[in-house]
Amino acid sequence: MTEISDIHVARQTIDREIEALKAMENSLDDTLGKVLDVLQNTKGRVIVTGMGKSGHIGCKIAATMASTGTPAFFLHPSEASHGDLGMVTKDDVVLAISNSGESKELLDILTYCRRFSIPLIAITKNPDSSLGHNSDYILRLPDNREACPLGLAPMSSTTATLVMGDILAAALMVRKGFTEQDFRLRHPGGKLGAILRHVSDIMHTGDEMPLIGEDAIMQDALIKMSEKMLGCVGITDKDGNLIGVITDGDLRRWMAPNLIEEKVSKVMTKNPRTCTADTLIAEAVNIMNNTGRGITNMFVLENGKPIGIVHIHDCLRAGVS
After folding, report:
1. Are 147 and 16 in contact (CB under 8 A)?
2. pTM, full prediction
3. What is the second-level CATH architecture of the domain 2-178?
4. What does the alpha-carbon distance between residue 267 and residue 245 come to, in Å, rounded to a whole number?
């Protein structure tokens, strides 16, 4: 019986929050475009503020904007009243969040914005509130019941606020033409940054590449492999194009007393798997892991000529597995 009751509460919570989001979706109007114009064209930063649960959501909104091309930070209303208003400049825009619109802690920020003509955008369900009356633009939240069984704790309203923040961030990304490369620059650490890095960021280049000509013999190949310590050597034709590769595995398969006298062109694996400099590291790992018996190195080509080589260990060190 308890399990049925728990599932009932879970579904009821989901349904009520979906109702709030649907209501917000249906109420969107041209105010959204005007707000986005202000956010996109501001010369300064987007300063997000809110108290309590609205503040927690505000922190996430500011963080999302900052990581997707819109400089932003969260300003705590209480700290603002004790000196942090100095962080707000005339070039900034303030995004104030209050479900009721009557959070008294926001009063000093509202007054400051009005005094210095700083654009103020409100996210609230009550346009007739103190926040609504003192704002230049109002993004209205749905006046739906909370998902809380008592109808008291902010649940549906905070979800709607969070989604409104995501709407702003997503629309600004599209307007600004924000790319994967832009995203990677803002996420140099962690898994997100790693999967968006390119082979060009980690490949060995120049004299680090193990390369010999097609007329060389296996003795030359062994010397080159030992010298570069990457476990392979690339074979190039007279024009510098990569035509094959010899790996440690090839040596084991061709092991014979006269191996060192053989031409490399006889031992090499022809048409090896390669990639380009703009191949994602994650894609390079996938290629190496799913090529026959699996390979540990891959040459990077440009117009058929090797410009680098990437080792699976380089990919692992970069955080991609």
Report:
1. yes
2. 0.68
3. 3-Layer(aba) Sandwich (3.40)
4. 9
